[in-house]
Amino acid sequence: MNSKEILRTPTQLGNFGGGSQAAAGRVADPAILRRAAVASFIGNFVEWFDYAAYGYLATIIAVVFFPASDKTTGLLSAYAIFAISFIIRPVGGIVWGHVGDKFGRRAALSLSILIMSASTFLIALLPTYQQVGVLAPILLLVIRLVQGFSASGEYAGASAFLAEYAPPGKRGYLTSIVPASTAAGLLFGSVLVALMHAFMSTESLHAYGWRLPFLLAAPFGLIGRYIRIKLEETPRFKALEAAHHVDRTPLRHLFENHRGKLIIAFAVTCLNAVAFYLVLSYMPTYLSTEMGVSETQSLIAATISLITYIGLIFLMGSLSDRLGRKTMLVLASLAFMACTVPLFAALSGAGFVKIVLIQILFGALLTMNDGTLPCFLSEIFPTHVRYSGFAFSFNSANALFGGTAPLVATWLIGLSGSKMAPAWYLVGAATVALVGMLLASETAKAPLD
Q: What's the whole-model pTM score?
């Protein structure tokens, strides 16, 4: 890498020593930052487009891949496959964290997007339950496990990658590209599925329409892979390499020396995990199955709220640079604790416009957390274990509370008979996150360790 092309402005230095400080203490020029941002955006977009397609097509997948049963049982089966695919995520977080901390962020991100896009494409080719019986849901589960494994390195890697490229005072803003790409993937999935419901018959959707979103993974993934292999490694990781400080056993050092940070990161991520999947993925299904809203209207409402979410996420990232990560994450937890139950209650009997407004408000609350969390999780861990610490804590929380959120919400409604059950579940997650964040230190003003 040509130093004149890539490295320009001196900043505060990390604890590397010698000539490596010069590499660690410089930031990429605007052209390099743009390429890094695009590469991070596309990979995360592919991942969450897939999850959006699966979540928004859950009612159809329940019919296509499972034996005929009552609607709730079929939906629970579809969500169970969705949830089980998250079991592998902590394992994937360990593997990708090890690769990213030992061999570089670019190596991990280039490989993970290839596995993710290939496995997503294979879903489009799966036989249905009517064709092969119980083999259909088994094959679906296997592919979802592969997806979960590959996806476990994506969010953490992209966030760490951008944080290590970002200039001082801009880390929050730049890392907010990662949740923005997540929302963009969900938005594209929402728009596509809404159009499918609007212009395709139910018979066509069940026969072949559900396959269309998954087919798109192949071209998206190839584009993302091409961009990523053209990128340079981050300045901070290159500095570690130059100083011969790359950790050969990052996981051992992570669990020996940073257990407290892992617990804090896990607790804070619980709110993100539950809120993200309830507000952005499960909500259209909740509106159609529990509130009697048409699937087309519920998806349109989700689409509108996602557009506002993407705009707000950058604002919240910028605010976290000014006000601090701790301030923003504490406020997000308090806001969810105070507003979730009233907002869920307001959905009962609400018209379309009111539903859209409520979803926009939920999205605004979520951006306070989402716009700040990727930067906080990148800053709380030092460079030599950053990928591992972020990936393990983030994926563990998402495995236990994120991927299971739609399943738990549906189960709680059936168990309690109350449509408010998901709201109280979300309040509980916000409480856990608040406790974790109160134990954390502010990270916004300190240089990356």
A: 0.82
